[in-house]
Write a sequence for this structure.
């Protein structure tokens, strides 16, 4: 067994709101570096830690973590729609392992996933069904949030399972973050129509999805122009977190609290939970690791502190 990692910001605005040409070129170069890293590694299995944005998981039942036994993309923001190639028997074994590790885990035999999980697969592999993929949902938008130590332990448990797969080359992906505060409704302040979406907004009409997506696109344009009211990006916070992840010592991340994370880096900064889980899995399965590439830039057009990292275990 060998293990490698890619963590990356995602943004539904990648194909809708272009930053200046030199910034867009930088992002494409970072993606190209990650693709080259993945191509050289040639994984036989992917474990994808990703959030959801009220497209597959809702307040009618919101688990902190969920492992997919089967999964399909919902097709938001022009991302791929349809089934992933999920190795169901292996997903079942993984869920049993995590439960035996004294962690509560939900499972789904029909997980619906959005751009948060789909975008990295498209960027890295050119599609969603090219490599067997186990999707792991990490709640990053809906209160209450579990402690960061629990996220780390989830990653460690999954990493310890991956270490038993002697014939696999495993790539773990952490998708989300970094600092950002897009216009996602919060239950406490949502109106009646918004609460209906947050409670169960599955399978919206094309018109409803387009209207929702256009609201985010418009917010990105306004944010780039300096006229949006959403919280600003926090490059210092982003870079500090990336440095902690690169250091190999993840224990200090346990002290991060949901309220402070939101205050410092926006309500959607909770998506960095996927990065923490991915790095914890890498550390648990392979011990010491080295970061082989790292890119960061705050990009207002994408409403994101935008980062891409690659790493692999050192043996």
């Amino acid at each position: 067994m060998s293990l490698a990692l890619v963590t990356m910001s995602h943004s539904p605005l990648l194909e809708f709101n272009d930053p200046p040409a030199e910034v867009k070129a930088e992002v494409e170069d970072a993606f190209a570096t990650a693709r080259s890293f993945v191509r050289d590694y040639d994984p036989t299995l992917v474990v994808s830690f990703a959030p959801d944005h009220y497209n597959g998981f809702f307040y009618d039942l919101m688990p902190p973590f969920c492992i997919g036994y089967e999964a399909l993309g919902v097709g938001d923001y022009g991302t791929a729609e349809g089934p992933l190639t999920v190795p169901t028997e292996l997903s079942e074994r993984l869920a049993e392992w995590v439960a035996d590790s004294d962690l509560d885990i939900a499972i789904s035999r029909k997980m619906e996933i959005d751009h948060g999980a789909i975008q990295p697969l498209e960027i890295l592999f050119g599609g969603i069904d090219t490599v067997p993929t186990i999707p792991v949902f990490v709640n990053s938008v809906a209160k209450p949030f579990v402690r960061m130590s629990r996220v780390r332990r989830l990653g460690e448990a999954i990493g310890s399972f991956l270490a038993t797969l002697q014939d696999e080359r495993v790539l773990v992906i952490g998708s989300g973050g970094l600092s950002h505060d897009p216009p996602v409704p919060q239950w406490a302040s949502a109106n009646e129509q918004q609460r209906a979406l947050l409670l169960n907004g599955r399978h919206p009409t094309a018109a409803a999805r387009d209207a929702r997506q256009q609201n985010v696109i418009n917010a990105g344009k306004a944010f780039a122009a300096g006229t949006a009211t959403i919280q600003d990006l926090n490059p210092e916070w982003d870079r500090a977190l990336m440095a902690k992840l690169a250091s190999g010592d993840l224990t200090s991340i346990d002290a991060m609290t949901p309220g402070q994370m939101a205050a410092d880096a926006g309500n959607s900064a909770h998506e960095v939970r996927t990065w923490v889980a991915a790095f914890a899995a890498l550390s648990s399965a392979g011990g010491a690791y080295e970061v082989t590439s790292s890119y960061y830039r705050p990009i207002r057009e994408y409403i994101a502190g935008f980062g891409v990292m690659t790493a692999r275990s050192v043996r």
Summary: The first strand starts at residue 2 and ends at 8.
